[in-house]
């Protein structure tokens, strides 16, 4: 399968962190955030295996414009999203497998930017539907996903290793792109 990466990358003209495709050199920064925000983090090797995923993106600080008390050095990984694609008889299925923002820069719009950039890349690579799993107790993430148009499709009891249930949420990403384009016009 041929995929194009980084269709939605860029957008640092106003001093915001730059969102761009991941590089191997970013993985340590990605893994640090993963360990800081999740009780059951993915192993480093899982990220290595997904380096070529069509929407594995990072937000990179440029050292300027740090919000509040956060210290941001040039090149810092501030957040990431991992979006993958599974062929499905012409209706390819996108999957947001992971999304996280460094704790000291959360709440400044970066999670939404990363999610939107990944959705654009997945759509550009042929996804018609995008799904994700989110912990039942993770209300901040659920609020973000609902706001972007994801809807709960089902609840999976004991989905996570610690016994917590997941909501599987789905988005018609073609419809989402049309809404985004209409808003931007
Ligand atoms: C979920 C996460 C990625 C959001 O990133 P963020 O940069 O903090 O979020 P944003 O500033 O872009 O906010 C986007 C929306 O998320 C929701 N949100 C974010 N933080 C929230 C909070 N503390 N409480 C409730 N809703 C919240 C809101 O709907 C918000 O929209 P608004 O600003 O218009 O109210 C981030 O909180 C995070 O890394 N959490 C830990 C890892 C995680 O849970 N990942 C998701 C796994 S499924």
UniProtKB/TrEMBL annotation:
Q: Work out whether the entry's keyword set contains Acyltransferase.
A: yes
Q: Which residues form the N-acetyltransferase domain?
A: 17-174
Keywords for this entry?
A: Acyltransferase, Cytoplasm, Ribonucleoprotein, Ribosomal protein, Transferase
Q: Name the Gene Ontology molecular function terms of this record.
A: protein-N-terminal-alanine acetyltransferase activity
Q: Does the keyword DNA-binding apply?
A: no
EC number, UniProt record: 2.3.1.266
- Domain of life of the native organism: Archaea
Q: Which GO terms describe its cellular component?
A: ribosome
The record, for PANTHER family, names: ACETYLTRANSFERASE (PTHR43420), N-ACETYLTRANSFERASE DOMAIN-CONTAINING PROTEIN (PTHR43420:SF12)
Q: Which family does it belong to?
A: Belongs to the acetyltransferase family. RimI subfamily.
Name of the protein in its database record: Ribosomal protein S18-alanine N-acetyltransferase
Organism of provenance: Halobaculum marinum
């Amino acid at each position: 399968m041929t995929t194009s990466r980084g269709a939605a990358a860029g957008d640092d003209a106003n001093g915001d962190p730059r969102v761009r495709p991941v590089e191997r050199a970013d993985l340590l920064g990605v893994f640090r955030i993963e360990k800081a925000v999740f009780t059951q983090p993915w192993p480093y090797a899982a990220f290595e295996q997904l380096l070529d995923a069509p929407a594995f993106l990072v937000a990179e600080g440029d050292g300027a414009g740090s919000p509040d008390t956060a210290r941001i050095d040039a090149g810092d990984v501030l957040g990431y999203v991992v979006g993958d694609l599974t062929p499905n008889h012409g209706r390819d299925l996108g999957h947001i497998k992971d999304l996280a923002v460094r704790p000291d820069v959360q709440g400044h719009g970066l999670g939404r930017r990363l999610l939107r950039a990944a959705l654009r890349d997945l759509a550009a690579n042929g996804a018609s539907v995008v799904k994700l799993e989110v912990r039942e107790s993770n209300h901040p993430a659920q609020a973000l996903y609902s706001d972007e148009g994801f809807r709960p499709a089902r609840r999976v009891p004991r989905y996570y290793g610690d016994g917590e249930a997941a909501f599987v949420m789905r988005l018609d990403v073609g419809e989402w792109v049309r809404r985004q384009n209409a808003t931007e016009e």
